[in-house]
Amino acid sequence: MKALIADQRLVTELLPMEEAIDVMRRALTMLAEGDVVMPLRQMLVMPGGDRVMGLMPSYLGGLEAFGVKVVAAFPANFGTGYDTHQGVVLFFDSERGLLRAIVDATSITAIRTAAVSGLVTDLLARPDAGDLAIIGAGTQAHTHLQAMRAVRPLRRVRVYSVPAESAEAFAARESRLTGLTVQVAATAEEAVTGADLICTTTTATEPVVLGAWVSPGAHINAVGAYTPATRELDSELVAGARLYADRRESLLSESGEFLIPKGEGLIGDAHIVGEIGEVLTGKAPGRTSPDQITLFKSLGIAIEDLAAAHHVYTKAKERELGTWVEIGGQHFGSAVEG
What we know:
ornithine cyclodeaminase, domain 1; eight-stranded mixed beta sheet; globular; alpha/beta; 2 domains; eight-stranded parallel beta sheet; Rossmann fold
């Protein structure tokens, strides 16, 4: 039995942003329709608390696939040349339990996270939105710029990051790659002021964007924080926004963006308008007026990784691309005797 090994280059080639957005649309629709099995991720926190390994299993009935992402999150990698997320996605078929693919999780995570934000932006942002602020200048900043460009024509792009050199390098590189003029903001407030699209993609543990800075009608994708004790947005901003989740259960259990203002008594569970899949299927409303601030708190869920890995596997098989190795398959005794 041959399984695909897909490296970063192959994932990037076979999962372009526009396709990735469609793949995420299908996966989140399946979630809303109940065609998914997905326990909460398990987290192994190493001494010091800043290094984490996550185990993220899932099953997608519509794809007849199950698998797991094993990912190590090391925020200290930022600026070192290594991505903050390292790992693999293992994809199995659900007929025989055969391993079909071992897929690089660094690239999967980078692309699918931004693709979900692109999908959500298309659903919730105002049709005329095009003034983008990106807080953070790492891998997710790069892919989020791709995703925002895929769903809205951008009039202006500003970036803010610490250290400033990271923002300057990002602006120069992305201006060259996209043909846009990416401006470096001196402060987060300067980047956000007047923006109608905001993406926070940092490793911050305390708020970097305040509600007082955000204009009416803005849409926010909050991506960086993923534990109950960390957040990128202050309580005022969360309390004043229409809040959406990739998955309600994850938000209630894992998100400091939600749990901290809830603990302060500012919001309750009913503050969550709905899951993105529920908006896709009409079970939850989207934006209902131009002046509303809409907020998507992205935590990243396992079916997104599995759907992306399935897509890469299917295209690689059709095009006969990638590295294929013999692994598993026959009953061991039969294989030896044969």
